[in-house]
C-alpha cells in the first residue's frame, strides 16, 4: 500500500549544542526533506524546556517556506490555549498568501511548557479563556473559512492553510470531524493499538479514509546502531490528583513541573517510548504493516534522536525506499 511520509521537528538541543545551532539544524533538515520528496514538514511548539528550541513555529515556518520549493510546511502544532484564535488565523493567512497551496495549520490543545512559562504566555488573555479551547477551535475554523460580521481576516489567500487537529483520543478525533478538519493521531505518544484502531475506524466510516498517524521513527545503516541510539531513551509521566498529566524527558524535569504546578499530590512513572527503529527497510516494513492494518495513507515521523548528523542521516535513509517504490 502506498503512503506519504511527513516529518515533525521539535528542534531538539543535543548535548554541547546551542539553541541557535538546533534551529539551524531544523532549517537544514527541512531543505533536505524538500529535496528528498517528503510531503510535509511540521514544526512543534514548546516553551521553557531546555532540551527543545521550538518556541515559535510560525517564525520557522516562514523561514522554511522561503528556503524550499515544493514541500508543504506547517505547525505541529500551534498551541491554541495560549493565543487568541483571530491572531492565529491572521498569521497563517499571511503565510498562505505568500506561499499558496503549501501551508498547513496544525492545532494542539495542550499548553506545551512548564507551568510558570504557561502563566507568562497566558497573562494577557481574558480570565478563563485559556481553558475554552473548544470555543477557540470553533471560532478559528469559522474565521479561516468565511469573513466574520464586521471584520475579516486579511489578506485572505486564494488557497488558505489546510487545518489539522492534533490529538490522542477518540474525543479529539470526533472534534476534528465536527470541525471538518483533518486529524493527526498521536500514535507516537501512547502506542495504544486499540485506540488507534478505533480512531481509524471512525474516520474510515465518516470520510472513507484514515487519519494521519504520528509515529516515532529512527533509521541507521544497521539495526544494531539504531537500537543502540534509542536504547536509553525514556520519558517520565507526571500525573496530578486533579487529573492533569504531562510527559517530560526526566524525573528531575517532572519534579520541577510539579513544584511549579502547585500544592497538588502527584505520581511519577517512567515509560519506554514506542519507537520504530532499525534500517530503513525495517522502518518501512513496520509502516507498511500499520498502513494495511489501519488504512493509513500518511505518516508524520517524529525523529527521537537529537544529534544532528544522526537525524539528517535517518531522514535520508527513510526516504530512499519510498523513492525506489515511486520510481
TrEMBL record:
Pfam families: Bac_luciferase. One of its GO terms (cellular component) is cytosol. Its EC number is 1.-.-.-. It is an enzyme of class 1 (oxidoreductase). Residues 15-294 form the Luciferase-like domain. It comes from the Bacteria. GO terms for molecular function: oxidoreductase activity, acting on paired donors, with incorporation or reduction of molecular oxygen. Keywords: Oxidoreductase. To bacterial alkanal monooxygenase alpha and beta chains. This is MsnO8 family LLM class oxidoreductase. It comes from Falsigemmobacter intermedius. The lineage of its organism: Bacteria, Pseudomonadati, Pseudomonadota, Alphaproteobacteria, Rhodobacterales.
Amino acid at each position: 500500500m502506498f503512503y506519504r511520509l511527513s516529518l515533525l521537528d521539535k528542534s531538539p538541543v543535543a548535548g554541547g549544542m546551542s539553541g541557535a545551532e538546533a534551529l539551524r539544524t531544523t532549517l537544514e533538515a527541512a531543505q533536505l526533506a524538500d529535496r528528498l520528496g517528503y510531503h510535509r514538514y511540521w514544526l512543534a511548539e514548546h516553551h521553557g524546556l531546555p532540551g527543545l528550541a521550538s518556541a515559535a513555529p510560525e517564525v520557522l515556518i516562514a523561514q522554511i517556506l522561503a528556503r524550499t520549493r515544493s514541500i508543504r510546511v506547517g505547525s505541529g502544532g500551534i498551541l491554541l490555549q495560549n493565543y487568541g484564535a483571530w491572531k492565529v488565523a491572521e498569521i497563517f493567512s499571511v503565510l498562505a498568501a505568500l506561499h499558496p497551496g503549501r501551508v498547513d495549520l496544525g492545532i494542539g490543545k495542550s499548553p506545551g511548557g512548564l507551568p510558570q512559562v504557561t502563566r507568562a504566555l497566558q497573562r494577557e488573555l481574558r480570565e478563563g479563556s485559556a481553558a475554552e479551547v473548544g470555543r477557540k477551535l470553533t471560532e478559528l475554523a469559522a474565521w479561516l473559512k468565511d469573513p466574520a460580521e464586521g471584520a475579516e481576516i486579511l489578506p485572505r489567500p486564494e488557497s488558505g492553510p489546510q487545518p489539522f487537529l492534533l490529538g490522542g483520543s477518540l474525543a479529539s478525533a470526533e472534534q476534528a470531524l465536527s470541525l471538518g478538519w483533518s486529524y493527526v493521531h498521536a500514535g507516537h505518544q501512547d502506542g495504544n493499538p486499540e485506540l488507534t484502531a478505533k480512531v481509524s475506524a471512525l474516520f474510515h466510516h465518516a470520510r472513507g479514509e484514515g487519519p494521519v498517524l504520528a509515529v516515532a521513527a529512527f533509521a541507521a545503516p544497521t539495526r544494531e546502531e539504531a537500537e543502540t541510539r534509542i536504547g536509553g531513551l525514556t520519558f517520565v509521566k507526571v500525573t496530578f490528583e486533579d487529573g492533569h498529566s504531562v510527559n517530560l524527558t526526566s524525573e528531575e524535569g517532572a519534579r520541577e513541573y510539579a513544584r511549579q504546578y502547585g500544592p497538588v499530590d502527584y505520581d511519577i512513572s517512567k515509560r519506554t517510548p514506542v519507537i520504530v527503529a532499525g534500517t530503513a527497510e525495517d522502518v518501512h516494513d513496520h509502516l507498511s504493516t500499520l498502513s494495511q492494518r489501519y488504512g493509513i495513507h500518511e505518516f508524520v515521523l517524529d525523529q527521537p534522536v537529537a544529534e544532528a548528523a544522526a537525524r539528517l542521516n535517518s531522514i535520508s535513509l527513510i526516504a530512499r525506499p519510498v523513492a525506489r517504490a515511486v520510481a
